[in-house]
Known about the structure:
This protein is α+β, with helices and mostly antiparallel strands. It has three domains: 8-34; 49-269, Penicillin-binding protein 2a (Domain 2); 273-640, Beta-lactamase. 34% of the residues lie in helices and 21% in strands. Strands 2, 3, 4, 5, 10, 18 and 19 form a seven-stranded mixed sheet that branches. A five-stranded antiparallel sheet has the order 12-11-23-22-21, with helices on both faces. Strand 2 and strand 3 form a beta hairpin.
Amino acid sequence: MDVGQPNIKVIIFRASVVVAFALLAFQAWQLQVVQGDEYLQRAQRNRFRLQSLDAPRGVIYDRAGRLLAGNVPSFTVSIIPADLPEEDQDYVFRQLSLLLDVPISMYDYAAGETEDRDRRYLTEDEEYEPEPQLKEDVEAGRATPFIPVRVKSDVPRDLAFIIEEERLDLPGVIVEIEPLRQYISGTLFAHVIGYVGHIPEQNVDSYTDLGDADYDPNDVVGLTGVELSYEDELRGRKGQRHVEVDVTGREMRTIGPRVEPEPGQNLVLSIDAALQAAVAEALERGLRGAHSDSGVVVAMDPRTGEILALVSLPSYDTNLFIGGISIEDYTQLSEDPPHPLVNHAISGQYPPGSTFKVVTASAGLEQGTVTRDSLLFCPGTIWIPHRFAPDNPDLAQPFNCWLKEGHRSISLVEAIAQSCDIYFGVLAGGYGEFEGLGQEALHNYGSYFGLGEPTGIDLPGEATGLMPDETWKRLTYGETWVTGDTYNAAMGQGFILTTPLQILNATAAIANGGKLYQPTVVREIKDAEGNVIRPFTPHLIRTLPVSPKTIELVRAGLRAAVTHGTARAANLGGVSVAGKTGTAEYPGERDWEGNLPIHAWFTAFAPFDDPEIALVVFVEGGGEGGLVAVPIATEILAHYFNLPEPD
């Protein structure tokens, strides 16, 4: 072997070492010089964090200052994805699943038989898609790794302390104290106050993309009722603080000044809690007596549009939604046939029956079709000629009054009092030589009274109702409007649909002399110190194009209905009541006599000379308004005016 000749293996080895060190030096230079600032920022971000501080949500009171919705401290367990090493996450998931009784994965159903539980509520045509659970939520949260992923809210105190003590073995897990919504009565004010919950997944972008908002995907927001309508006022503004954390994400110290959160503003409702309770009790009794599953009572101050009570039954417990409602509870509520989650006072649309006759009467008087002294004849049944064969009696259609023997000659005031169907049918549609009001005028006056349009109440989900006309029928059914349609519309039947609140608002306009107010359930808004920052101001929608003389005659008819007409049961001794009953047919199974099922209505105001309360009672499928709805209203009015309870 030639000793002087270099060893090729040694040369290769030395070259490899040089290259390796060169690469290491280059990489060190790359990391420390070229990318040094970037990695420094990452390190600082891992070590120093800007934490947001949730603001206490504004509280809600009734008009007398009684607390209806407040906040209580609660423990929430979350995971910060950035602090959860992937090699430890299986252990962390197992521990949290055992401690908090939450599924690890959407595909892991060994504990609790979640899959079978969820599948129970699916129809044969529906495809089962399990909800994302702990593992999937954390994986999705790695896109924003420093935002906590909520694992469970309202964790018991002792369990929260156990998790906090095991923080060293549970990297990334944090226990926070946050305000939790508490509703004093979960069912009594459900459709007014509503409830809060985490931002729905499909709506996250609509919240987080708001320009001046500071929403996070895990935030709690109002989802129904005034909690939703007044979300901006109630939510407050978040605070913030800079903290230093260790490698497990455990907080070590606070750095710099702390910005305190601004509490949300407080709402003072126009609702009277004592009246609300009395209304709910009276309505519940009335529903039991009528064998009905659903009903509504709304009471209003006709001088301002303030809602004094709003009860829609059946109701639901808003406290079920605190911390997240279970699948079983939500499915049961959403599939219950009477629809307890629906606020029937503003979302239910029903034929108004004879409560609509105040509109027909106002239109007839204002248009000069009838006067105070005009008499129309009610024989019990009349025959409406066929439009294309008016001389052929075989094609004529019968139109019946509810009183089979008829009311004979009757004036407008008495027609309101006795709720004569033929009087109002003829008034609107004409008969023989008497030229009626006509469909166009009837439609216009219904619109003046606010029917067929939202009232504008400060609650979500209000329906518009329907005030039909010739164009609507032609576009909807491809048919022309006929005289029979006008007859039916004049008595609140046919195609007309209204919400109970719309009927109440129309009644209130008659009670107060012709002013149609926008209803409201929020009276004042106050700051955290109790200072009024938005006082109550009535909002006038319009003044009805109806003369004081017309309103005076309609009011006289409503008073007569109580003194000796269809609403005699409401004739309280201590206060003068005026009102109008309604019995409205609706499509359904006919009884043994061939009659359609009927809704019960009653709308009223009192005292007659200076009204301070107006109310509407609606019992779905309850029967005749005078027999079912009037007693409910009478009991409520007796409570309101502190009178002896009627028999």
